[in-house]
Write a structure and sequence with these properties.
With 90 residues, the chain is an all-alpha fold. Helices cover 78% and strands 0% of the residues. It has one domain. The chain has 5 helices and no strands.
């Protein structure tokens, strides 16, 4: 069996590094370990591609929340007022 250092065989660490790299720069040693792992592991390369795709899609969805229709607000206000009246009586 081919001897590989533990960090090259460790998918769990690689996936953590992939996620951390999405938010901040990795230390040089971490970048090297991730680079070595990704060159040998097709599964983590796929995970990295999927993570990058999801991050791009999430950035595209970010924005101000959709406005609440006025009819919904009126109904909620009426329900809250009715609940307050019921609490005051009981």
């Amino acid at each position: 069996m081919l001897f590989l250092p533990a960090f090259v065989r460790d998918c769990r660490t690689a996936t953590r590094l992939i996620e951390r790299r999405a938010d901040a720069a990795l230390a040089p040693g971490e970048r090297l370990r991730l680079w070595a792992h990704l060159h040998l592991c097709v599964y983590c390369r796929r995970y990295q591609a999927q993570s990058q795709l999801l991050a791009r899609l999430a950035r595209g969805l970010a924005g101000p929340p959709a406005p609440v229709p006025e009819a919904w607000l009126a109904r909620w206000r009426a329900q809250l007022a009715a609940a307050d009246e019921g609490t005051a009586r009981g």
